[in-house]
Design goal:
single chain, 382 residues, mainly beta, 2 helices, 18 strands
Length: 382
């Protein structure tokens, strides 16, 4: 964070010479209502407000690019849950180019709750508590020829939960690496072949799992602002837990895939995406998340934009020492959100949004839904 602030300070003083630097502050105030915050039985009705100051910054030279954000949410809930929360976001992305080499970094620190980014990634509804997440993903890309490039990267993730034991959640770490080749067949076609290895560790349980494999991918530009990409491959999952007198292990093979179709019109954008991924979770288990989603955005006027977002998740647990894959019932989560955004002046925007979400476990005859809405006023200054 100190390095980020020094970067912004230096950029505002204009000490970068021929470089281009910028910093844009913002402030959002949001009032919200949710009929069932936890998507569970009982009274989980809440209302409240969010106050979110932020500062986005960018910088670039002939060889260096830096982009980041410093943001926080001051949250107050009333109703079934009277609680104050503070969320923090410090994402950072950098790249440095030299001849045929490009060195990159993505990462940062996020402190939010389990019903935000973790739910969006895995589709699993966890207990409502704060999560602190550290991410670091350095990479190197080598241009072998004009069409062929090779990229390798490393990933480190550390997740910690506030009062995790109370909610059945455990801290975990993920370390892994990827390496692969990208080849531009022609102007509008690109193919990739990538290998991956990851280690998922639960230090408090002396439990770990590894998943590795390879996948191929293809990206095509159809022209007229329409693009598509698809990739797929296998993951070999092995889980091990130390016990008295030895260890227990389990194995499973999972097929993963991902696809995206995006079409841009003069005043509208449509995107359909989906796939199946292996994800870590705070339950100390690896998940298989099957997801399909769609986004539609349309500019009604120069100042008014309407959008519609929808997602459907199917979530199941992979092989671990706590039982085989079938021992935990599959869960389903879905949501749909229409939104209206009105930029009524140069620096001010008003957003109104509604979300319907539901969670179901068919084998246990569990089904819960929630209606939520918010009104948000945002200032984004020069």
């Amino acid at each position: 964070l100190c390095g980020v602030m020094m970067l912004v300070s230096g950029s505002l003083r204009g000490e970068a010479g021929a470089a281009e630097w910028s910093a844009a502050p913002s402030l959002s105030v949001k009032g919200l209502y949710n009929s069932n915050l936890l998507l569970f039985n009982g009274n989980n009705e809440v209302w409240g407000y969010w106050v979110s100051p932020g500062l986005k910054f960018k910088g670039s030279t002939e060889s260096l690019e830096v982009e980041g954000n410093v943001k926080s949410d001051f949250v107050q809930y009333y109703g079934s849950t009277d609680r104050s929360l503070t969320n923090l976001y410090f994402p950072l992305r950098t790249s440095y180019r030299q001849d045929r080499y490009t060195f990159g970094f993505e990462g940062g620190f996020t402190r939010d709750n389990t019903l935000q980014s973790e739910l969006q990634q895995t589709g699993l509804v966890l207990g409502f508590t704060q999560r602190s997440l550290w991410n670091a993903m350095p990479s190197i890309t080598v241009g072998i020829t004009e069409r062929l490039s090779w990229k390798s990267g490393y990933q480190f993730t550390d997740a910690q939960y506030e009062d995790g034991i109370q909610f059945g959640l455990v801290n975990y770490q993920v370390q892994g690496g990827t390496t692969g080749l990208t080849y531009n067949l022609r102007e509008r076609d690109q193919v990739q072949l990538t290998g991956e290895y990851s280690s998922f560790r639960i230090p408090s349980r002396m439990q770990d799992a590894t998943y590795y494999g390879a996948q191929g991918g293809w990206t095509h530009d159809f022209g007229q602002e329409m693009t598509a990409s698809i990739s797929g491959g296998a993951r070999f999952v092995t889980s091990t837990q130390d016990v008295s007198g030895g260890s227990l292990s389990a194995h499973e093979t999972v097929w993963v895939y991902r696809g995206t179709l995006r079409k841009m019109f003069e005043r509208a954008t449509i995107q359909i995406d989906g796939g199946s991924e292996v994800n870590p979770s705070g339950f100390g288990r690896l998940l298989q998340t099957d997801r399909v989603g769609a986004t539609l955005s349309h500019n009604l006027t120069e100042t008014v934009t309407v959008s519609l977002n929808g997602s459907l998740y199917f979530v199941s647990f992979l092989a671990t020492q706590q039982g085989p894959s079938g021992s935990t019932p599959q869960q389903r989560y879905s949501s749909i959100s229409p939104n209206v955004s009105w930029k009524f002046s140069q620096w001010w925007t008003l957003d109104v949004s509604y979300t319907y979400a539901e969670r179901a476990v068919d084998s246990l005859n569990q089904w819960n839904f929630a209606n939520s809405t918010f009104v948000m006023l945002t200032y984004g200054g020069p």
